[in-house]
Amino acid sequence: DSEYPEVNGPLSQSCYLKALDDCYGRFKLKNQSNGRQVSVESTDYFLFHSPYNKLVQKSFARMIYHDIIVDNASGATATATILDGKKLLSKWTNVAIGDTYEDKALESTLKTIATPLYNRQVAPSCELSKNIGNTYTASVYMNLANLVSEFGPSLHEKAVTLFSYGSGALASIFSIHPSTSPTEVDARFSLQTMQSVLQISQRLQQRLKRTPQDLTLALMAREKSHAGSSSFKPTYSIDDLVVGAYYLEEITPSYERIYRRKTSN
């Protein structure tokens, strides 16, 4: 019984990519049935569940694989990027999709094709997740907050696709079109207001530097609470939390989690 889980990395990655393949394929078919064509190049931004950024890059590349190989994009509609990609991926045209998940040559080729598009359509939402790590269920929505912080009102009517994933069990993909219309948006949640409040890049620069010893003490506290009784009271100071931040005050013997909000310094 350990505080630290064991993970089968290759299996975990394959489960993620298989879920993405299934969701993206169904998403494209659903849109086609409604008269809409969906592809990487018809979408402005993509946001992903983000355990680590390398998997995000691989996932975006898988979408390009679908556009080129699975959908067999034709010269009549494909852009130069897709047409060039078709040439690079020609050897995988008849390879079963189930045989591609651990194909390192395919992975490398897809990265070559995807990188310019990734830098424009995915990277702007990844600054926060790359800096603070995996937030699990929250990660795709954290990336959405990052995107709003970066672009604010300029996201008006942009096509944004989100992929949410849950530990190999469930996944979903959906699209949103942010709006700046004053008749549709509560002023408190306008793109402009949210951008002014979020300020992701500035707040990342304001983080406090900690030592390896600080991390060791924090991990020891977690290990102690994990091995102890069901009740738990954190011993860390809240002095460095920003005003308005929520924090865990205690876990009761009946496993209730009690949170408080910092009101002043």
Task: Explain how this protein is built.
The strands form two sheets. This protein has a three-stranded mixed sheet with strand order 1-2-3, sandwiched between helices. A two-stranded antiparallel sheet has the order 4-5. Helix 2 (53-70) crosses helix 3 (80-88). The chain starts with 8 loop residues before the first helix and ends with a strand. A hairpin with a 3-residue loop joins strand 2 and strand 3 (170-176). Helices cover 45% and strands 11% of the residues. It is built from nine helices and five strands, in the order H-E-H-H-H-H-H-E-E-H-H-H-E-E. The mean pLDDT is 89. The longest helix is centred in the N-terminal third of the chain and has 25 residues, at 9-33. It is mainly alpha-helical and 265 residues long. It has helices at 9-33, 53-70, 80-88, 104-121, 127-132, 139-151, 191-198, 200-205, 212-227; strands at residues 45-48, 160-166, 170-176, 246-251, 257-261.
**Which structural class fits the helix and strand makeup?**
mainly alpha
- Determine the number of helices (DSSP H or I, runs of at least 4 residues): 9
Oligomer: single chain
**Number of E-state strands:** 5
Mean pLDDT: 89
Order of helices and strands: HEHHHHHEEHHHEE
Short description:
With 265 residues, the chain is mainly alpha-helical. The chain contains 9 helices and 5 strands. The longest helix is centred in the first third of the chain and has 25 residues, at 9-33.
Break the fold down into its secondary structure elements and pairings.
Elements: H1 9-33, E1 45-48, H2 53-70, H3 80-88, H4 104-121, H5 127-132, H6 139-151, E2 160-166, E3 170-176, H7 191-198, H8 200-205, H9 212-227, E4 246-251, E5 257-261
Parallel strand pairs: 1-2
Antiparallel strand pairs: 2-3, 4-5
Helix pairs in contact: 1-2, 2-3, 2-4, 6-7
